[in-house]
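Progress narrative, work stream C.
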Amino acid sequence: MPVYFYTPAVPLANQQKNQSQPIMQANFQAINELITQDHVGFNQINFGEHNKVTFNVQGSAPAFGGQEGLFSMIAGGITDVPEIFVNTSNFGGTTTYPMTASVLSILNPGPNSAGFTYLPSGLQLKWNGITLPGGSQSVTFPTAYPHQCVAVFLTTTFNSVLDVDQSVRLSAMAPNNFTVYCSFRTMTGPSPCSFNWLAIGY
């Protein structure tokens, strides 16, 4: 795409029309190119509306002031690709988070990789499957929640042929882990168990 240069303060004092005209025409061309980059252009139906939104990829989160700033595209972070980050600090939020980041953003995550995804609100879902010995056991998240884990859902593995006599119960949760108790389902006492978990936090 060509680069158009904008010259401010034109026409200058005592400048002749034949001197200012080409500069002003270049300015109008630059303005037109700026508007039509992502918007419906002049003299068209729905002019000024967005066709798309293009983000400049930045190396770090930009600084926002007052009631400014919501979205920015930042390279790196927790995945291998640039992600759209949301800044909520000026609206009662607590952080800048990668709204589009998920396990799908990671190059070659592998079939058994722990999964995660962000919701537009800033909530993050994490999940995985695990087998633990009996009794009270702690499960550490691949990455800790910045503030807190608000819920963990557990589903024991079920064999369609044989009844697996196991049970798992949630006993505690923290930003970086949660604790479960693995036991038999039909009798007292600890027992190894396999289960899947889904955590929600921010």
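Work stream C, second folded protein:
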Amino acid sequence: MKKTRRQAAVPGGPAKRFFTLPAVRALFFQLISLAATIFFSTVLDACFGVNISAWHAACLQGSVAAGLAWYGRLAAWWLIIELFFAPAVLLGLSAQLPPSLFLGAFLLFLFLYWTTFRTQVPFYPSGPRVWDRVADLVPRDREVAFVDIGSGLGGLTLYLAQRFPASRFSGVEIAPLPWLVSVLRAGIAGSAARFSRQDYHRLHFAQYDVVFAYLSPAAMSDLWHKACAEMRSGSLLISYEFPIPDVVPSMVLSPLAGDAELHIFRI
């Protein structure tokens, strides 16, 4: 299996790494587009006596922000967010919705996604077809220590703990709301599965026989470096949907025809 070298740290320290985060860059593009829109509107009014409407200004701001995101090579979904952000804010203000509704939505998304802006790993739930396929990969001849990093609502971990009561299954989730739901589900079901709320980078992979990940393309290189540095020889790293750049998997499986693939790496 081909291994890659650990990438060098981004020069400039934590501050520079912070400003390379896509969410921070997206906010910066919005601020630039807002300033450009205000400047353009002021020039039109002062020189030609033309006043553009708030909706036209919002659409202009969104278009400029989306163009900057495209030039800055942000992912496609950021272009959509940049394009519709200002019109969506204006629409919300024009609807005169109560402030408590915005606060509630903000808190919901905060506790659901938490540090997605930094980790670039949004909430990605898997499904029963994936769980069955992963269960086929769990060794049956011995007790196994299995961890799902980014375990979400805990479905996979709970399912495997029920299937293999002699083994140890745990889930790690950084977002408070999914973690709390998984803990409650385990308690109600009387499951032996255990869930902790922390960043998986704080785990030491050497204590696990199988590490399962359903993260995002942005996280795969760092995950591979951590697995190579910490996992024991013969253990398994399983990534659902997202391959590891420049690394050939030991095996590729698909839950069903047309589904995303499981990429299995034997360390």
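The chain has two domains: 13-96, 128-266. No further action is required on this item.
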